[in-house]
Amino acid sequence: TMVDLAGTEDLRKHNPRAESTDAVAANKSLSVLRIAFERLAQGEDLAPPVRESVLTKVLVNSLGGNSRTLVITHVSPHAACYQESYNTLRFADTVKNVLSHVTFATPSPPCDDSA
Questions:
Q1: Confidence at residue 78, expressed as pLDDT on a 0 to 100 scale
Q2: How high is the pLDDT of residue 73?
Q3: Residue 24 and residue 15: Cα distance in Å, rounded?
Q4: I need a surface site. Which of 5, 39, 62, 77 has the fewest CB within 10 A?
Q5: Residue 79 pLDDT
Q6: How many CB atoms lie within 10 A of CB 13?
Q7: Is the model's pTM score more than 0.90?
Q8: How far is CA 75 from CA 20, 60, 94, 97, in A?
Q9: Quick one: residue 64, left, alpha or beta (phi over 0 = left, psi -120 to 50 = alpha)?
Q10: Cβ-count burial of 90 within 10 angstroms (0-12 exposed, 13-18 middle, 19+ buried)?
């Protein structure tokens, strides 16, 4: 599963009246995703909140399950983007602490029907 979260940055910075339902839904999904990764990184017995947003429902098999997960972040060196870049790097630091234990299925031997 590949998810591109481009354009989900703080919309109010670019448009102060941008309180659209899409922006609210995107921020809620990102918050739930952050909480899910924090719980997985801490190794808590609590299940990550995968049913609380559409984003985490889509990523349920990739969140600490039997899969390898890659998160690519983009940050800006511009001073005006400092807080946004800092928050992105904090998120990436949390994600890198998630440990998954991938196991590979071994194929069963073919059946011998000659008996």
A1: 92
A2: 86
A3: 14
A4: 77
A5: 93
A6: 12
A7: no
A8: 25, 26, 16, 19
A9: left
A10: exposed
Q: Is 86 helix (H, G, I), strand (E, B) or coil?
A: helix
Place of tokens 């299925």: 105
Nearest CA to 97 out of 57, 52, 64, 75 is that of 64
CB atoms within 10 A of CB 67: 13
Rounded to whole angstroms, the Cα distance separating 24 from 29 reads 9
Instruction: Report the chain's C-alpha Rg in angstroms.
Output: 19
Query: Among candidates 9, 1, 2, which has minimal Cα distance to 74?
Result: 9
Low-confidence ranges of the chain (pLDDT < 70): 1, 6-20, 22-23, 44-46, 64-66, 101-104, 112-115
Question: 58: which 2 tokens?
Answer: 């889509």
- Which tokens in the block code for residue 57? 């429902």
Q: Which two tokens stand for residue 66?
A: 């039997």
* CA atoms of 4 and 2, how far apart (whole Å): 7
